Q: What sequence folds into this?
């Protein structure tokens, strides 16, 4: 790892941790003591393997490989593992674009068996929106919704769908 | 008399970044407080194309090329 890459990794980890801390503060303010946000670690990646056994799962992603490659390429990335009652509820990865004008939410997956009243997208959007604000981005994009039901759900958050790039976006 | 033209990215970088509390307030106002409480999250929610990313990360990254063009 080059020194500049390591330096960026360290600087942006400070911002990532500040955002995660604020998400947990928000949980405390709302009395949601069962919820906990963390950076993605080996424990979270290991738990994500259990999702493979669920018939409710809609994707067959390799989070261990995906996270490893994403982390290596993007020191400025956003990442979050959301836990509910000490079970992994979702994983989220995103990154600022080349110029930093935009923030992308590249990948999010909810645990296929999470409680239906736990809204992981809302929490993840709040968190990456906060990260985008701290980095000075002026647009947020949510990439590649897996189906029309998910796309329509995202639109309820004020995001607008762009078919040409298969993403939804909002101005910050 | 000539007027100095400032690069947009440089101008943005000069702005003082918000505190995490300010950023949280803005993000909550935009994405957390306006959403109907009875809105149900779809089962098996996911978005992204991790296979495309893992197969060819360089190609995947080219999606940002429109922004690079904007900067020129």
A:
């Amino acid at each position: 790892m080059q020194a500049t890459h390591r330096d960026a990794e360290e600087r942006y980890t400070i911002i990532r941790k500040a955002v995660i801390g604020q998400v947990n503060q928000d949980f405390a303010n709302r009395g949601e003591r069962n919820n906990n946000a963390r950076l993605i670690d080996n424990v979270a990646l290991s738990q994500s393997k259990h999702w493979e056994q669920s018939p409710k799962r809609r994707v067959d992603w390799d989070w261990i490989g995906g996270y490893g490659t994403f982390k290596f390429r993007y020191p400025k990335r956003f990442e979050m593992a959301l836990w509910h009652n000490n079970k992994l509820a979702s994983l989220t990865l995103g990154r600022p674009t080349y110029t930093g004008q935009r923030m992308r939410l590249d990948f999010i997956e909810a645990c296929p068996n999470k409680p239906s009243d736990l809204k992981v997208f809302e929490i993840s959007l709040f968190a990456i929106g906060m990260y985008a604000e701290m980095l000075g981005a002026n647009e947020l994009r949510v990439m590649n919704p897996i189906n029309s039901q998910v796309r329509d759900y995202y639109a309820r958050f004020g995001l607008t769908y762009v078919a040409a790039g298969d993403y939804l976006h909002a101005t910050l | 008399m000539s007027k100095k033209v400032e690069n947009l990215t440089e101008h943005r970088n000069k702005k003082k970044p918000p505190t995490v509390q300010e950023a949280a307030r803005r993000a909550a106002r935009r994405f957390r407080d306006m959403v109907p409480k009875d809105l149900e999250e779809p089962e098996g929610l996911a978005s992204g194309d991790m296979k495309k990313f893992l197969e060819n990360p360089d190609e995947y990254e080219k999606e940002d090329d429109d922004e690079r063009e904007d900067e020129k």
Remarks:
- The first strand of chain B starts at residue 46 and ends at 47.
